[in-house]
Design goal:
Blueprint lengths: L1 E5 L5 E5 L3 E5 L13 H23 L8 E8 L5 E9 L9 H8 L3 H7 L12
Antiparallel strand pairs: 1-2, 2-3, 4-5
Helix pairs in contact: 1-2
């Protein structure tokens, strides 16, 4: 279970299954910008997951993965609504050409990306303690 608790101002601390804790904050003027925002963490999950699946492909085929990077460029509307997420899988110039398609296919298998291809229903209910 994931549990987020309200701290001071816009700061939130989140316990992830009693294994990890992530602190978040909001950028100024709403917060102090002392930690990533929850939306930053949402976007980071795409890049990190894509990079992991690229690395996994390289390990399977015993290919070097040094220098492989994933760049994420979010696109927002004038109302600051996320409209697109552009991911770039960057490989070194000497990466084996015959593995490019497989690397891209495997990196695209990231479950975070797949969750957005068919987004889950999200519900919110009020519960009194």
């Amino acid at each position: 279970m994931i549990v987020s608790s309200v701290l001071d101002g816009a700061k939130i601390t989140t316990d992830i299954g009693d294994k990890f804790v992530i602190d978040t904050d909001q950028p100024s003027p709403f917060g102090e910008d002392k930690a990533p925002s929850p939306f930053d963490i949402f976007l980071v999950s795409f890049a990190a997951c894509t990079a992991y699946f690229a690395q996994r492909y390289c390990r399977k085929w015993k290919l070097p993965h040094d220098g492989i990077k994933v760049e994420l460029d979010p696109v927002f509307s004038a109302q600051h609504v996320l409209t697109d997420i552009h991911l770039k899988l960057k490989v070194p110039a000497d990466f084996p050409r015959d593995h490019l398609a497989g690397l891209l296919r495997n990196a695209g298998a990231c479950p975070v990306k797949k969750a957005m291809d068919a987004p889950p229903a999200v519900t919110l209910e009020l519960v009194e303690a």
